[in-house]
Amino acid sequence: MHEVNAIVLLDEKDARNLAEKLGLEVMGTVGLLIWAKKMGYVESLREELDRLIDSGFWLGRDVYRRALNIANEFKT
Q: What contacts 10, CB < 8 A, 6 or more positions away?
């Protein structure tokens, strides 16, 4: 058996909880976008998050603000 070094991309709460219980590293859409911003693949996290929200993706205000804060894009 080979060990695989991977991240599981999940947004659904129950699936995330199960994956974490199994010892898997979990990242959601917002986490992936923060990573992309840090790596230089995304210029504006705010624009990407707003685009997701405009397309029907539900994102809580706290998560939105926290993500922008992590990406140094939070404006008070």
A: 16, 19, 26, 27, 28
